[in-house]
Amino acid sequence: MKKKKVWLLTILVVAVVGISIITGHNNSLKAASPLGKDTLTMITSPDYPPYEFYDTKGGDRQIVGFDIDIAKTLAEKLGFKLQIMESDFNGLIPALQANRADFVMAGMTPTPERQKNIDFSIIYYEAKDTIVAPKGSNLKQPQDLSGKKVGVQLGTIQEQNAQKIAKKVAGIQLKQLNKVPEVVQEIKSGRIDAAIVEDTVAKGFAQANPDLEFNTIPSEEASGSAIAFPKGSSFVEPFNKVLQQIKGDGTLNKLVAKWFSQNTANPVSSTPAKGGLNLDFTRILPDIPFILRGIPLTLLFTLLSVSLGLIWGTILSLLKILGIKPLTWVANAYTSIFRGTPLLLQLALVYYATPQLTGYDISALQAGVLTFTLNSGAYMSETIRGGIQAVDKGQSEAAMSMGVPYWLMMWDVILPQALKNILPALVNETIGLLKDSALVSTIGVVEILRSAQIVGANKYIYFEPLLFAGLIYYVLVMGMTLSASALERRLRQSE
């Protein structure tokens, strides 16, 4: 019994220590308040070279790019330190509205719809839209897209422009995707006929993929990139003054020449594309250390979620079998809610709603651990309840006849046998959490999948980094499965 107590106590200590680690480790992810601090927090989507992307050489995780250099210049001239957060593009505006950051730089265009919810600086760079399509498609004008499937990145000005084109040109079918690399891959897979992408980004993809071409779309109205702020931000005016200054003294032109005069990704081969998958894993070899750095974070996330989920699930299962109707109703209602709604929705609500509802600026990793703990607890509670009820009733009757208190009986007699019986189900839940940890990439946690997507965006490729990430997940799952099998065999030896 002492060994079992020590084992359970160890899990609790690991969970508490882990939370302390991520709380301290992720202070860098917390947004600064708009006033009264010496640090400005910028949020971006670093999968859009040359505007913002990760420098993955040597396993580094430094976000670089045109927007980053401008932001550093602005912060320096205004006398602030700069802190950078990341998110998917469609999560940038919600992050501003939740006061998670002071401003956004991500090649964002100040459209009338966006201006209703956030403020913008003056435009600091103007770019043009292009039609990206397989070479030889001869799609040069919006009218050429009639009857075609066209891809766009969700939440971008290109999506809005494509919707305007679709109203004028009959037969266009739009397909929205989260990232530009995904849009380009859809073209290469033949699922869409073309995509509307910004010219500077389209240039990089065309250089990396000789089987693609792009043609500039004539602009009907002025558009360009601006800095986004929360509504009513006091930083708009000082930022505008500095932007005007760096435009006038040539600093901005130097940055344009630095980032847009050449392909900022790693050099690509000019060899014509071959048929089939045309996989070339040598292109990601220098970036493998960067992808591997996502493993410890994924394992930490999984360990914390499983440990805390097991504790929470045990509590819920006990509430369900105590026989106290109000507690049973609450536990059953909780389980119903968390099993009946998508995990991704729960994650988004916890991450974006917590600062607004409580005032606590929860970090991305903390939000992920909390969400997965609450969700896995709901599933584990049913598994643990079944395990408890599967223990022979004679065990509890014997303990009660000896005068053993109920809680001590559950802790020393029933729960150890129940956990032993449900070990395979708990292993399955752990494996599911390991794989589902990829969902936290949507709120900016750079785990295995996010790392692979970053490499793909930088190299303008898709399959190779994702296949390598899949291999990592498979190896981790197999290692976990073998360890669980060894533990189960050892436990069975005592029977």
Alpha-beta content class:
alpha/beta
Count, helices:
19
Mean pLDDT: 82
Approximate strand percentage: 5-15%
The value of Rg in angstroms is 26 Å
Span between termini: 15 Å
Q: Which outline best applies?
A: elongated
Can you give a write-up of this model?
The protein is α/β, with parallel strands linked by helices and 495 residues long. The chain is built from 19 helices and 13 strands. The chain has helices at residues 2-25, 66-78, 92-97, 112-115, 157-168, 180-189, 199-208, 236-248, 251-260, 288-292, 294-321, 325-340, 343-358, 364-390, 393-401, 406-421, 423-436, 448-459, 463-493, and strands at 39-44, 47-48, 52-55, 62-64, 81-86, 103-108, 118-120, 129-134, 149-153, 173-177, 194-198, 212-216, 226-230. The strands form three sheets. The protein has a five-stranded mixed β-sheet with strand order 5-1-6-13-7. Strands 10-9-11-8-12 form a five-stranded mixed β-sheet, sandwiched between helices. Helix 11 crosses helix 14 (364-390), helix 11 crosses helix 17 and helix 15 runs antiparallel to helix 16 (406-421). Residues 1-17, 19-35 and 263-275 have low confidence and may be disordered.
